[in-house]
Amino acid sequence: MHFLHKQFQPIKYMFVYAASILLxxxxxxxxxxxxxxxxxxxxxxxxxxxxxTSTFLCLLSGFAMQExxxxxxxxxxxxxxxxxxxxxxxxxxxxxSTIMAMLILILLFSIPEASYAFNRIEIIFxxxxxxxxxxxxxxxxxxxxxxxxxxxxxxxxxCCIIQITGIILVLKIxxxxxxxxxxxxxxxxxxxxxxxxxxxxxxxxxxFKELKILLRYSTxxxxxxxxxxxxxxxxxxxxxxxxxxxNLGLYSIATKFSxxxxxxVQPFGMWWIPKRFQSLEEKGKLYxxxxxxxxxxxxxxxxxxxxxxxxxxxxxxxxxxxxxxCYLIIGAVIIAFSKEITxxxxxxxxxxxxxHWILKIDLISSSIGLALCYTTVSYGIVxxxxxxxxxxxxxxxxxxxxxxxxxxxxxxxFPLIIILLITGLCLLLSFFYKKIIVLSLIFIxxxxxxxxxxYYSAFFTGIRISSPYISKKKNTNEL
Length: 479
What we know:
This protein is mainly α. The protein has helices at residues 2-24, 27-30, 32-38, 41-62, 66-72, 79-110, 112-117, 120-145, 149-173, 177-199, 208-232, 234-242, 245-272, 276-317, 326-345, 348-351, 355-376, 381-406, 413-432, 436-456. Helix 4 (41-62) runs parallel beside helix 10 (177-199). The longest helix has 42 residues, at 276-317. It starts with a helix and ends in a 23-residue tail after the last helix.
């Protein structure tokens, strides 16, 4: 019984993570019918502009310090060493992010264009988020590394309830986009404070030499993420300023559904991504490939499901003014699909610490994608989305090629290609056919076909979903 408990424990963790994420990040999707009845597409476009700007500036100010936690803390054996290093990363993150936030605040107040797009309260709260967003990511990652899933669930749920309460009050008393955003910022800050005391973090700083090592690893990843933002966020700026805020509002609806897909991927990713390097070292290439292929299959199934069911959701539950968002969902799903796939197959480059390679790849793919956006902007939002899709697919292919060049992994190429073709065909069909019965058939047949190909190709054979921290006595090549 004790053996079975250990074997199924990671699966339990993934289910708890899934519940936590669905209650927090998925709440915006659950409340979408309510929110859409209070705000017009144009108002939601303004909210999306605020959120996009905040996300971009968080990338700049955070230096991707949470990546250091995955790379330099996860493999340590002694708990006291892991906690000490996490304290240092956490403290450095808060310090660096606060300094950057103050500099950005001064810059935004001095730029006239910023005051045209946002009012002073919005600018202040955008910069407030910059101070602690990365530290919050480190806090939650530390809980996951320790497998404290119950604590993660309780904190996430509590803060979600606080945020929902605030949102309902704003909608009932004074529906306003700025207040709506402020509620989100304050609830996030409350979560940071709670986690700070739960984790019992202490203020410790690295030596300059140690900090330099951390920044040498994470800064290229930060710059890479900022560059990648050209394909995962900057298109919203382009849509807002080259077409209309209404189109941006409709696209924000589409991206909420693609975000829902990413949310459903996260439980698996939160378990696997921090531990994949240790699994590669202790269990070998074949085990790593098996889990990665399972992840690709999972993302493909979720993409088909999301593309079809989201359109059904919009047609049945949202105001008619939002129905045109159905035509934008496919592009949003393909962008999210390419991004999630890339996160799973990017093993060789990260394992060899060649993060500057990722920077170069992202620079090439983003430059091409943004250049195409500029040349196709006359075709409206469709031209912009096609350009971003091309850039994302190019990035995925380049990451896969160079990752395999550094660390060849024995993927089952033919069945993977078949699964990807099935996914692409289902997404294409769901773009042209909008009847609910047809969409239902597309996702049922598509998902069934993908699972059949995976099963027939022995994707699941030999997979034992056990935590690397639990099973350390197995042979490195054992499945």
